[in-house]
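Protein modeling request. Please complete all fields; requests missing the sequence field cannot be processed.
Requester role: graduate student
Desired output: 3D structure, token encoding
Chains: 1
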Amino acid sequence: MTRPGESGRAAGVVTRPADRAVLSILFVVVAAPVAVLALRALSATWFYPEILPPAGSMTTLVALASDARLWRAGAVSAVLAAATGVGAATIALAAGRVIARAPKAVRTAAGAAALLPVIAPPIALGVGLQVVALRAYVSGTFWGVLFAHLVPATGYLTLYFLGVLSAYDWSLEDEARTLGAAPHQVLARVALPVLRPRLVEAVVLGALISWAQLALTLVVGAGAVRTLPVELLALVRSGDDRLAAAAALALTVPPALAVSLLARGARRTGTVA
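Delivered output (273 residues):
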């Protein structure tokens, strides 16, 4: 017999006033910055102490849509994000498979090594990567920035795959090998089909890590690689807050779409309620 309120919680329904209050506060905290950006991007003027802008204008969105510099920066960011997502997911999957079947001491050490670029301050990580990029003659180039983005993305996705592989049924691969499958056949016909949804998620997560990178891009790219976050920073520093607000909103669109698609895919496959 269930106690009052248990059935509502089991069904995912928020019934307590405290729960509703917490969700309301969370919604305000998340939505308020986006709402302010949207108001500033669409306002003709907005001066202190006005609570709301007195008039709206579409000129900023027109300027954003016609700014070739921002379009180029967005294209560079998109290519970097795609390359980082695919590259980091590939490396992390291979590393995760090796680490997951290693002795416990090796797993612990490898997990700590993968965590280091994730928790390290971006500026400190960037300085170290800049030294490597200078020695490799790729500082200030697209390839140098891609290398810099791959480091934290690979660390994060390695930890992700270690979690995924902790619930992976390795006996499927053992049975395939027993039946005479070669290592590449086991990978292509057993492991990848089973892990395909998680691999897609990893590519998207890796791309999102790259999409918003600013510190690593500035340090390793030396200002020569102009991504959308770099151009957004330039707009903020120039004082053009209307166009900066519009560009900031544009920067949030791909992550929002990616999260929505992942959530939809998870519901379709039954991995979330």
